Amino acid sequence: MSNTSIYDTPDHELLRDQVARFIAREVEPHADGWEEQGFVPREVLRRMGQAGLFGLMYEEAYGGAGGDAMTNLVFAEALSQSTYAGFIITVLVHTDMASPHLHHAGTPAQKEKYLKKVIAGELITAVGITEPGAGSDVAGIRTSARREGDEWVLNGTKMFITNGVHADLYFVAAKTGPGKRDMSIFIVEKGTPGFSVGRALKKTGWLSSDTAELVLDNVRIPAGNLLGEEGKGFYSVMKNFQTERIALGAMAVGHCQQALKLTLDYVRQRQAFGGPLWDQQTIRQRLSMLDAKTRAARQFMYHCAWRVTQGHDIVQDVSMLKALTGELVNEVVQTCQQFHGGMGFIRETAIERLWRDARVLAIGGGATEVMLEEVAKRY
Q: Would you say residue 1 has pLDDT above 50?
């Protein structure tokens, strides 16, 4: 399957090659152990930072590369050629879902204090939005922040937080007024009194990523830890969702590509009914159609990223993309697992891992049903 696109540049190809070499050297030989221990080792993330992979779209003044949304998409898709989605999401939460809050809304002082270390991989980030009673419904959060002199006091619980156990820096959404959308974003450092991991969560997939429930019990932070304007956090979250959902689309497309590659190799070798499975017309045709859908989704994904670089509002487009790719990856991976037969249900196979890991892509970052409502309300 050719990956050549009208959006590609020589720099994009260099980035893809750099990421592929990193995955081959640092991830694939070791990631089975990470799946068992439940997190990616810090030294691996630090090496990614040292390689310049954590600040592709951030300012050069803080150690970034000054790239754009297209560069970030190339990175996310290249990263998603790994079959270890727990590793992928650990990285993408840091680069595309959490730290963009600091990039977009941080003051020069906040960036000087934190962003250099975030880009270098010395500080790993997480974003605390989802709560036990508020998932895709961001406006439904109940965590509160009240001002007391030169401090903010935060109370509440966050749920399903990727990097929640091992992160150093958290960007936490909390209500700061009576209105449904009156919320703000705050910088909370690990170790702040009252801020704790309630429990590490055991998941169906993404086993090499740590996920946590976070508890904020009268957490006092300096007034200067307010990120962006007070009361405007809802809109910051919505803005960052564009980057996040393109990254999750890239993850889904990458899984589709890898599942199809694994399955094409398998059905050409697997002997059954007097010949290779590839001789069965239904298998050839179903894989061909799934490849066609994957290629079409990939082009739509690149077009969305290109529109971001042109300054367009793409909320409807990116909502379509998230809904489309979240459903497509489950269709592709389940079919590919089916064509692996019994081996597709064995933990030692990559296709079984992809099948488990793909399921959440129709849920996390905006469930399919919520995304389709975002599309429909803009007609």
A: no
